[in-house]
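Ligand: zinc ion. Inputs:
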Amino acid sequence: MNNFDLHNPTRILFGKGRISDLDGQVPADAKVLLLYGGGSAERTGVLAQVRAALGDRKVVEFGGIEPNPRYATALKAVDVIKENDITFLLAVGGGSVIDATKFIAAAAELEGDVWDIFTSWGGAIKSAMPFGTVLTLPATGSEMNPASVITHAEKGAKLPFMSSHCYPVFSILDPELTYTLPPRQIANGVADAFVHIIEQYLTYPVAAAVQDGFAETLMRTLIDLGPKAMETPNDYDTRANVMWTATLALNGLIGAGVPHDWASHMIGHEITALNDTDHARTLAVVLPALMQDQRGPKREKLLQYAANVWNIREGSDDARIDAAIDATRNFFHAMGIDTRLGDYGVGPAEVDRIVAALESHGMVALGETKTITPDVARRILTAAL
Ligand code: NZQ
Ligand code: ZN
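Predicted complex:
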């Protein structure tokens, strides 16, 4: 196992009715900026619960954060913070609202050009405002990690950053808040979490028995419960397990001390930047093609994945790897997610644009061994057409 440091300061408040705990989590004298998305939180009554729990605190609201949150929108929130002497941010929503809140929290305290946050992958951030979250969509793990992904529409860029200053202070995870999710978003969340696990698992072995076993359990849980969450949306136990799995998939635990890939994510971000395809769907397209392309370097872990996640134990090595890749693709299909670029209007001409965008963003040595060059990315994308 590789050396690692692990520190996760986010407090998790999990379970039914936990929004009422907000009163004890947000400082009593805070001036709060309540951030939310395009209206689902208002429609579902979550915002009403949050407003009630915040009581007499001064609260300013900032709605309209888009899925794949936009840089320009986030900067408007920074102005609102400065105009109203806001001291605490509260994100209510999915990964997009939480990611935007991280960027806003950092940008509000940054001296200099905020775009530096992206060119430095977060290194330019020296402090950030405190913020909490109320999660309504289990998927990204953003509620318990220091990462964020922001889209700059004019630059055609969707770029990530990370900073130890950008962990939420607390996150409220009430599975009942997820009952209102449309099937498309349930599927997206399960697929995204599944690929987060794979990106920290399907590399090469480093004798990390606990991380591997934990990752395999999380994947089997999603394979089992993902379709059930779509079939029986109001089943609390199913929703609770999916929610907790998505958080554990990307809160640092399974990734500690093991190699990471993230090539599917970086290639996928460029597809979303191109045509706004849902994040999870870009992953379901790229991952199976990447597994096939990288079956040589990933051979040992692919065989382990076949056996321990899919119970594929018969046949030659190559046959078991083929079966595991097919099973992965079929899992996405079972969740109602298409796995070909053509399903999302992306053809050969767009492949060139995606590869050019990767190059322009310095994504020229991706994967656990940095061998996914633009040429390899082109090969993977062409196979995914
Ligand atoms: O905008 P509203 O009206 O609120 O509706 C949202 C949105 O349209 C809706 N929704 C959320 N909770 C709901 C609900 N509808 C009904 N009931 C509820 N309870 O769902 C739609 C999608 O929301 P969004 O926040 O965009 O989805 P998700 O959580 O999948 O986040 C995706 C974003 O996270 C980034 C992605 O790139 C993408 O921009 N990621 C962030 C990561 C991180 N911070 O670590 C890692 C991920 O790999 C990912 O890149
Ligand atoms: Zn993701």
